[in-house]
Amino acid sequence: MANHKTIGIIGSGQMGSGIAQVCAVAGFDVWLYDIAHEQLQKAHKNIETSLEKLAAKGKLLPEKAKSAMQHLNITTQFGDLKKCSLCIEAATEKEALKKKIFKELDELTGPETILATNTSSIPITDLAAATKRPDKIIGMHFMNPVPLMALVEVIRGKKTSDETHQKTIELTKKLGKTPVTVKDSPGFVINRILAPMLNEAVWALQEGLATKEDIDTAMKEGCHFPMGPLALADFVGLDTCLFILEVMHKDLKNDKFKPCPLLKKYVEEKKLGRKTGEGFYSYASTIVR
Ligand SMILES: NC(=O)c1ccc[n+]([C@@H]2O[C@H](COP(=O)([O-])OP(=O)(O)OC[C@H]3O[C@@H](n4cnc5c(N)ncnc54)[C@H](O)[C@@H]3O)[C@@H](O)[C@H]2O)c1
């Protein structure tokens, strides 16, 4: 059974804060950790605002929104994660950084603690190799925005045990999400399909096939997409899109995943999309949910 009481989340960006929110709403004690104090404060405020909005829309009981906030703790002290029976890593999509975090979590937490990652593209088996408990390492790939999107890709590494997999499936359902089990391959299913599509939209913009607005309108009106690919790339974060494509290009050895130079240019200029207020489009507010 998924009998976790205390869940640690590493990284309080758009994904970590969303995961913390759904875990707190489901009644778990949550410790949201980040190295950046300011980001943690912003995450705390965003979660509060998001819960208030959900309550105002009648999608969440006001008492539940209140108790979720009581379950939420934010911290810059890595040692606070020691008590967690499950940790979900949602830090920046950089392999070396994630390996370091997994090694440190392995040393800090009890031997029974499951260590999950929200990575979009990095093989779980590679992250598991940084620990002495590869049987307890698993991918939990949530979708953005986490409070609204139902899917979680559950990814087993080569040595992930049946027990860890079963507990993760149960936990995902307890969070009100729909799990699908996916093979451990760079980009899994969602980004194997989505990332090259977003990249192709950037190529279309770079080659001047149409304006950014018309590229997005074409895909919304022509393919029934709820939002255009360039707006979606801004929403995901252009740095995250680039990191995902780089991992897939390197690991799958196929030039169809080669990042478009225009995408790289935006990232170099620190125009990362909604989270920085500017990407392909400009945003007045950087609060995503
Ligand atoms: N953005 C998306 O749509 C999306 C969707 C699914 C999965 N993901 C994955 O989720 C992860 C996080 O993405 P995001 O969009 O939330 O990024 P983000 O840039 O919004 O947040 C990343 C956070 O990680 C923190 N961080 C960096 N180094 C850290 C460390 N050593 N310890 C603790 N925290 C650290 C940063 O301070 C920042 O708050 C990535 O692996 C990404 O691929 C993203």
Written account of the structure:
There is one protein chain. The protein is of the alpha/beta class and 289 residues long. It folds into 2 domains: 6-182, NAD(P)-binding Rossmann-like Domain (Rossmann fold), CATH 3.40.50; 191-276, N-(1-d-carboxylethyl)-l-norvaline Dehydrogenase, domain 2. The protein has 11 helices and 8 strands. Strands 3-2-1-4-5-6-7-8 form an 8-stranded mixed beta sheet, with helices on both faces. Helix 1 links the parallel strand 1 (6-10) and strand 2 (29-33). The longest helix has 20 residues, at 37-56. It is globular. The protein starts with 5 loop residues before the first strand and ends in a 21-residue tail after the last helix. The model has no long low-confidence stretch (mean pLDDT 95). Nicotinamide-adenine-dinucleotide binds at residues 10-16, 33-36, 39, 90-93, 97, 101, 118-120, 141-142, 144, 236-237, 240, 275.
